[in-house]
TrEMBL record:
Name the UniProt record assigns to this protein: Heparan sulfate 2-O-sulfotransferase 1-like
UniProt entry keywords in alphabetical sequence: Disulfide bond, Glycoprotein, Golgi apparatus, Membrane, Signal-anchor, Transferase, Transmembrane, Transmembrane helix
SUPFAM superfamilies: P-loop containing nucleoside triphosphate hydrolases
Similarity field: Belongs to the sulfotransferase 3 family.
Organism: Limulus polyphemus (Atlantic horseshoe crab)
Record bears the keyword Disulfide bond: yes
Length: 355
């Protein structure tokens, strides 16, 4: 009888040991399966994170409660807009979008419309825009020259954007704008109101308003605050303007391709410009400001202007920016149903170790 009990006890112990080993092995395999599954899910998430998924995430963020915070909240964009380049039309779109996309638009108003700031004002401006957290994300715009934040020891670099225009077209537009104004504020009296001299006549008479030196504006705006930037025909200024465009500007478009520039902004800055392309096309913002009584110059006048050193330098800068814009556009946008949009993500991560 005692032997039977011993055998029964031994058998029970063996059964318990087998069950315990089976349980440990099963748990180990489940743990390994869970790890592999998690790694696979992570890879799928990365691979599938394309443009459309990103926009969905951005849309959820934009529509979240005001109290929520995210890294997108620190976005700081500066548009140091060049006069008479369709900047008002572009800002009309931004003001339409700011409430829906939950960002702030702030105009930079300088005394006497000065395009450069004193050293102390430069410091004040940089301190204000980098530390004013209640107004971020933010888009600042105004007719001011490029300003390098790092010169003052600030680590945050703003995202610069801009638009430029064919130099002679910009000069002619500004010439007639000073005399007749535009349809944006038609009742405002302009500086040259009553002066009916045409641009052709001005060039023939060699008056100051049509002097090619007045085209020296787009290069200085990109060159910056250095005194040589504002010296007409300065070769160093042209080189510096090109360097700043490449190193500090996210995207620079051209007035002649404004719709494409808006599409680029939506693709590369969706946090602010999500929905900008359709707003531009459907919201009647493409011709927000049109100069009155503008007369195209004669071929003779055009040739005289093109013989000047200032035109050749400004045009060189324009062509430099245009080439860069076309290259960026080709790499970034595709056309769908007649509308340019982001071509989607063309990279993914793989061989991620350790799992």
């Amino acid at each position: 009888m005692w032997k039977i009990k011993q055998l029964f006890i031994i058998l029970c112990l063996v059964v318990c040991a087998v069950l315990y080993c089976h349980f440990v092995i099963k748990v180990f395999h489940q743990d390994e399966t869970i790890k592999k599954l998690a790694a696979t899910v992570n890879e799928i998430k990365v691979k599938d994170f394309d443009y459309h998924n990103r926009n969905d995430i951005l849309a959820d963020f934009v529509n979240a409660d005001e109290g929520s915070k995210d890294s997108f909240d620190d976005v700081l964009v500066i548009y140091n807009r060049v006069p008479k380049t369709a900047s008002t039309s572009l800002m009309g779109v931004a003001y339409d979008l700011c409430k829906r996309n939950k960002f702030h638009v702030l105009h930079i108003n300088t005394s006497r419309n000065m395009h450069v700031m004193s050293l102390s004002d430069q410091r004040r401006f940089i301190e204000n825009v980098t530390t004013w957290q209640d107004k971020k994300p933010a888009l600042y715009h105004g007719h001011i020259a490029f300003l390098n934040f790092q010169r003052y020891g600030f680590s945050q670099k703003p995202i610069y954007i801009n638009l430029i225009r064919k130099p002679l077209d910009r000069l002619v537009s500004y010439y007639y704008f000073l005399r007749y104004g535009d349809d944006f504020r038609p009742y405002l009296v302009r500086k040259r109101k009553g002066n009916t001299v045409t641009f052709d006549e001005c060039v023939e008479l060699q008056e100051n308003d049509c002097d090619p030196e007045n085209m020296w504006l787009q290069i200085p705006f990109f060159c910056g605050h250095h005194v040589d930037c504002w010296e007409p025909g300065n070769e160093w200024a042209l080189t510096q303007a090109k360097q700043n465009l490449v190193e500090h500007y996210l995207v620079v478009g051209v007035t002649e391709e404004l719709e494409d520039f808006v599409a680029m902004l939506e693709a590369v800055l969706p946090r602010l410009f999500r929905g900008a392309t359709r707003r531009f096309l459907e919201g009647k913002k493409s011709h927000l400001r049109k100069t009155y009584n503008k007369i195209d110059p004669s071929q003779e006048t055009v040739q005289k202007i093109r013989n000047s050193k200032i035109w050749r330098m400004e045009n060189e800068f324009y062509e430099f920016a245009l080439k860069q814009f076309h290259a960026m556009k080709k790499r970034t946008l595709i056309e769908k149903n007649g509308i340019l949009e982001d071509g989607g993500q063309r990279f993914f991560f793989e061989k991620i170790r350790p799992r």
